[in-house]
Amino acid sequence: xxxxxxxxxxxxxxxxxxxxxxxxxxxxxxxxxxxxxxxxxxxxxxxxxxxxxxxxxxxxxxxxxxxxxxxxxxxxxxxxxxxxxxxxxxxxxxxxxxxxxxxxxxxxxxxxxxxxxxxxxxxxxxxxxxxxxxxxxxxxxxxxx
Length: 145
What we know:
Shape: elongated
Largest sheet: 2 strands, parallel
Structural class: mainly alpha
Low-confidence stretches: none
Distance between the termini: 58 Å
Number of helices: 7
Mean pLDDT: 90
Strand order of the largest sheet: 1-2
Strand content: under 5%
Oligomer: single chain
Helix content: 55-70%
């Protein structure tokens, strides 16, 4: 016989699969909805998150939050020792994010996410010769500046 906890867990698993089945991608807003659903059903946040991780792992769903965590680590590693972020590195990050999202993200979405990470964390940008600012140019091309 199923316990109440088992039923709640099954409801949560169904909610996760409904969001991931069409594109195998759980973006941050979907992740937030899933965790709110878990809380509303009476689970603790860490329980809901653990179930989310398990289902995503078993179903090979990509979690946007994990992609962003990986990107942030890449950026931190590059920036160690006072290195300013270069345009070449930014473009490498874009390729990496596009590849890791397995086609879900488009170039513009990927670059917007990278820009947000850079700005939210206050990373330094290396400027080019004569003070040219590649970062500002990219932001303008994305209509973010």
